[in-house]
């Protein structure tokens, strides 16, 4: 008796038998998010690295944050949003949030919200510090996501948070952080163009 007849006899179609032998790849929302955040890290670092170290604090005018500040701000905000997601404690306001234990130490006291200059001396040192902070905060996000499951992403809407995050589910916090990263990265790309620098290609760094 050939295999086809045997499978028919025991009630299994040949296609069902073949599919049962295929490797199972679990595509979860969490796994997709991790993949996207790894791409975001690579692309964001490529944009950052494109600026020469002597222009790391370039700003188009006195009312805008510097190139370096945008990336410090990205790192801090990613650390903040994902920290709120992961922490069992709640933070009703921004002042309380700033005291949270989950924050990675910032390497420089430069303002994260208003035009300012880094306290660190030397262009090379400044660029190195910002890059390391950016890498560490991206790694914090990716590591945190690996501890979640899809069901957890649906929760969190009722958790107490600062006003600008109220009503956010855990998934909302992850998506909000990535959207915020894109917002500031795009401004940094504009800074590159103003310095006559061609920015890294988007598709090259984001194709799966």
Compact overview of the structure:
This protein is mostly helical. 57% of the residues lie in helices and 0% in strands.
**Do you know the CATH architecture?**
Up-down Bundle
Cα-to-Cα separation, first versus last residue: 45 Å
Q: What are the segments in which pLDDT stays under 50 over at least 5 consecutive residues?
A: 12-24
Number of helices: 9
Query: What is the percent of helical residues?
Result: 55-70%
Order of helices and strands: HHHHHHHHH
Radius of gyration: 23 Å
The profile of the biggest β sheet is: none
CATH superfamily membership: dinb family like domain
Please, what is the average pLDDT?
91
CATH uppermost class: Mainly Alpha
Derived from helix and strand composition plus strand pairing, the structural class reads mainly alpha
Strand elements, count = 0
Organism: Hyunsoonleella aquatilis
Protein name: DinB family protein
Pfam families: DinB_2 (PF12867)
InterPro entries: DinB-like, DinB/YfiT-like
């Amino acid at each position: 008796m050939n295999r086809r007849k045997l499978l028919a006899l025991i009630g299994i179609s040949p296609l069902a038998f073949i599919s049962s032998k295929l490797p199972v790849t679990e595509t979860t929302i969490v796994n997709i998010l991790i993949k996207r955040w790894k791409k975001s890290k690579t692309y964001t670092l490529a944009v950052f690295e494109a600026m020469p170290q002597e222009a790391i604090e370039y700003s188009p005018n006195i009312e805008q944050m510097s190139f370096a500040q945008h990336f410090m701000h990205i790192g801090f905000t990613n650390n903040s949003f994902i920290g709120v997601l992961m922490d069992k404690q709640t933070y009703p306001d921004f002042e309380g949030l700033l005291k949270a234990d989950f924050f990675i130490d910032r390497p420089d006291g430069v303002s994260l919200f208003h035009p300012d200059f880094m306290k660190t001396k030397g262009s090379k040192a400044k660029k190195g510090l910002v890059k390391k902070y950016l890498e560490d905060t991206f790694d914090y996000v990716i590591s945190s996501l690996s501890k979640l499951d899809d069901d957890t992403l649906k929760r969190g809407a009722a958790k107490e948070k600062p006003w600008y995050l109220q009503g956010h589910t855990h998934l909302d916090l992850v998506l909000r952080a990535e959207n915020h990263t894109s917002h500031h990265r795009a401004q940094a790309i504009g800074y590159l163009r103003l310095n006559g620098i061609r920015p890294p290609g988007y598709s090259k760094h984001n194709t799966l």
